[in-house]
């Protein structure tokens, strides 16, 4: 009788282990596909100092968005001037690099008024924007980010900076931390 119970337990454990192995294999296969997709993406780009530029001649259009500003008004990408290039910076409420970058971005925005500078911050509310606005008085536009816009722009880390041309086409994307790096990023020939 004891041997039948032990045999039953061993069979159950064996089946459970097989199920776990199948699940782990599926997870590894999924991870491998993601890695191969990222490798393909990286292969189609050229990198210089944490900045990558699409190697294709065609500039992809930037996805439009409709996001809230500090007054609670809906702002879209198309609301900005079609005569200016745009800098989109994707940040996050808990990103310490972003907090260090925003004063640099503020100085850049004050100096280069011929560009629209827009910060899209994930994880904040309109009330948070109002508070930040009073505390910091940044010269750039701040918007409440959504999961949709983060996914549309394929933001994987923050701060991620996009440079758009006057027609809202993506010129380049990079991880920028200083005003000097931003100047190099924007005015690269």
SSE layout and pairing:
Elements: H1 2-43, E1 45-48, E2 51-54, E3 66-68, E4 74-76, E5 85-92, H2 96-111, E6 115-122, H3 126-136, E7 141-144, H4 147-152, E8 160-164, E9 170-174, H5 179-187
Parallel strand pairs: 5-6, 6-7
Antiparallel strand pairs: 1-2, 2-9, 3-4, 5-8, 8-9
Class inferred from helices and paired strands: alpha+beta
Q: How much helical structure, as a percent, in the residues?
A: 40-55%
- Total beta-strand segments: 9
Mean pLDDT over the full residue set: 83
N-to-C series of helices and strands: HEEEEEHEHEHEEH
Return Rg in Å.
Answer: 23 Å
**Termini distance?**
82 Å
Count helical runs. Answer: 5
Tell me the strand percentage band. Answer: 15-25%
Low-confidence stretches: 45-49, 51-56
* Shape assignment: elongated
Neighbour order of strands in the largest sheet: 1-2-9-8-5-6-7
The major pleated sheet works out as: 7 strands, mixed
List keywords for this structure.
5 helices, elongated, two-stranded antiparallel ribbon, 44% helix, 189 residues, alpha+beta
Protein architecture, described:
- This protein is α+β, with helices and mostly antiparallel strands.
- The chain has helices at 2-43, 96-111, 126-136, 147-152, 179-187; strands spanning 45-48, 51-54, 66-68, 74-76, 85-92, 115-122, 141-144, 160-164, 170-174.
- The longest helix is centred in the N-terminal third of the chain and has 42 residues, at 2-43.
- It is elongated, with a radius of gyration of 23 Å.
- The termini are far apart.
- The relative contact order is 0.17.
- Mean pLDDT is 83; it is low at 45-49 and 51-56.
């Amino acid at each position: 009788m004891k041997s039948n119970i032990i045999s039953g337990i061993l069979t159950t454990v064996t089946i459970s282990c097989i199920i776990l192995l199948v699940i782990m294999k599926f997870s590894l296969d999924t991870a491998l596909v993601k890695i191969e997709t990222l490798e393909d993406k990286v292969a189609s780009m050229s990198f210089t100092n944490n900045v990558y530029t699409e190697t294709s001649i065609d500039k992809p259009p930037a996805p439009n968005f409709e996001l809230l500003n500090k007054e609670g008004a809906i702002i879209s990408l198309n609301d900005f001037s079609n005569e200016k290039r745009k800098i989109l910076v994707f940040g996050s409420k808990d990103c310490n690099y972003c907090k260090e970058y925003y004063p640099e971005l503020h100085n850049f925005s004050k100096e280069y008024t011929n560009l629209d500078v827009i910060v899209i911050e994930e994880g904040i509310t309109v009330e948070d924007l109002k508070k930040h606005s009073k505390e910091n008085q940044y010269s750039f536009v701040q918007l409440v980010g959504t999961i949709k816009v983060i996914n549309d722009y394929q933001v994987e880390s923050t701060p991620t900076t996009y440079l758009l041309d006057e027609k809202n086409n993506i010129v380049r994307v990079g991880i920028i931390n200083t005003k000097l790096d931003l100047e190099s990023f924007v005015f690269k020939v």
